[in-house]
Amino acid sequence: MLTARRPSHTLDMRSVSIPFWLRGNYDAMTFFGSIVTHSQAEAERYNQLTPQYQSSKLPAQSSKLKEWYHPVKYHETIHLRQAQSVHNSWLCFYWKYFLYWFQARRANRILPNAGYELNPFEMEAYANMYNPYYLDRFPDGRATGWKDYARMTLAQRFYARRKYSPKENS
């Protein structure tokens, strides 16, 4: 944590296996520029994916897409770009994340795990993790779509999350 690089100095997040950190149905977690996974096999699979920074130049059905894209790793990469947009600081990012999480906890009676599911950072990442060209929208590379979710009330976020929620779409 103390030796973590600034988000803008992190080009590719390395994966590590720390299974006891992940609870519930979470596949991975971003922790100061690293991706924490359940198993060493998952970590190695994510580490073998080479980052692609000009993805919009690739055709949609390109075989090269498989060389760098995985939805879970892309979800965590969106968190990296979000941290860049929050003063380029992991501490500021986690502070805001905690504040949004705490604010959304009020809805726990209606939605279990509301602090996580109604968090603007998670909402942006989940809504765009299957779109490998999402980060190309931002010329400076900083993902700022979370700000649109942050402007919403909790009720608006609750209904907006239905668009990407895997539980309700399956």
Give a brief description.
The chain is mainly alpha-helical.
Q: What is the number of helical segments per DSSP (H or I, 4+ residues)?
A: 9
For the biggest sheet, the summary is: 3 strands, mixed
Radius of gyration: 16 Å
Instruction: Assign the structural class, choosing from mainly alpha, mainly beta, alpha/beta, alpha+beta, or little secondary structure.
Output: mainly alpha
What value does the average pLDDT take?
84
Cross-sheet strand order for the largest sheet:
1-3-2
Helix content: 40-55%
Low-confidence regions: none
Structure description:
The protein is mostly helical and 170 residues long. The chain contains 9 helices and 3 strands, in the order βββααααααααα. Helix 3 crosses helix 4 (90-104). The N and C termini lie far apart (38 Å).
Write the layout of secondary structure elements.
Layout: E1 14-17, E2 28-31, E3 34-37, H1 40-48, H2 65-68, H3 71-85, H4 90-104, H5 114-117, H6 120-128, H7 146-150, H8 154-160, H9 166-169
